Amino acid sequence: MVVSVCFSARGTTMRYCEAVGKVLGSQKVLNWLRKEDRVPLSLSEKDLLIFACPVYGGFIPSVCRDSIALLKGQSTPALILAVYGNRHYDNALVQMQCLLEERGFAVKAAAALVAEHSIFPSVAQGRPDGNDLLQSEEFAFRASRCLTSTQKISLPGDRNADSHSFKGAAFHPAADGQCTHCMKCVSVCPVGAISQDSPQTCLEDLCISCGACIKACPCGARKHRNAEYGAAQAAFAMKCSARRENEFFFIGTE
Question: N or C: which end of the chain has fewer CB within 10 A?
């Protein structure tokens, strides 16, 4: 059985995950954005896990890091996808590898994939595009040849990096007077950072700035409204506007 597990707040990580899963015949897709999808999952050595996460501050989101405890493998082959907003994926791939190895999985191939930035969407706008998705499908074909290899894959990044060192983004979404109190933002927030009593704002100590509430808002009321946001977006875009290409890593020989 092929199972896909991802965390996709704005849909871009899901698009990559589905492109890879389509080639490999994924029979189940879990999106850890939804609390009901965060359930125990046990896989055998005959199964395959496709695991896809966005990159926040060089690591995968804390909700993903903690939810990996739900996964249990028995030398189960795994493919990992780190989806980042055109800056860099830093330690995310090797972090995913280490966490999955602790849970009984063997990473056979990995990809660092570019998508529209979740906080500054003018950066890598429109990605993944058609070429990105085609590359993802080609990655899946190539990775399928590595699944029986007994070698260990080598991935870039610091295996000893402290994932708790990232304290979260400086910007958090809030709503304006257009908010209709429909509560869709409350229902999609993966960490419970939006209160039903005050849906216009969020609890900044809980918010991971994933953008799910912005995506879900039917009237466009939720945005990043911090006074420094505009200047920060312009500076980030100037630094990270050049197109980065996807990177792929495979175990052993193809």
Answer: C
List of domains in the chain? 2-162+242-250 (3.40.50.360), 173-225 (3.30.70.20)
* Alpha-helical segments (H) within 4-110: 12-24, 62-67, 92-102
Whose tokens are 């999609």? That residue is 188
Burial of 76 (0-12, 13-18, 19+ CB in 10 A): buried
Beta strands in 59-136 (DSSP E): 71-72, 76-84, 105-114
17 near 133, Cβ under 8 Å?
A: no
Q: Which residues pair with 247 in a beta bridge?
A: 112
pLDDT tens track for 191-217: 999 988 888 888 999 999 999 999 999
Q: Which two tokens stand for residue 134?
A: 């085609």
